[in-house]
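Q: What would this chain look like folded?
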Amino acid sequence: MTVSSRLLVLTTAVALTSALASTHAVAQGSAPAGKSGRWKDIGKASTGNTVLLDAKSVKKGKDGIITATVQMPYTKPYETPQGKVVLSRATAKFDCTKRQIAVLESTTFSDLAGAHIMNHSAPKIPGFGTVFTSNYSGVALGYLCAQ
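A: My prediction, written as structure tokens:
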């Protein structure tokens, strides 16, 4: 292997390592130095998993209902027949008055970057229902409704 080939391999390895670290940092709610992250840490579910909010996705309707996208990386991935789920992301409507949530779409991923979809669902007619503290819904409702 020539010196220039070795240099190319080393440069590529450093670039890939940096890209992976940046992707992991953004998925965890922080950003690489000097850059703002897409995801904001808004608290922890009762399971200990961090709940992250895409601040740019937050929209408040005339009726007071808030629509937002949240995600939750799992500290302990869980097994499914398709493999390990490490991240859940959902877009939902939050009714602060009734303290309820309606999931518009939900996706689980096998990677923290959110590139490998394991499951995706979007109900045809979303309905409002119970908020749970064990997942993102209770944390997100509390955060969004306090704003």
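The chain is about 25% helix and 40% strand.
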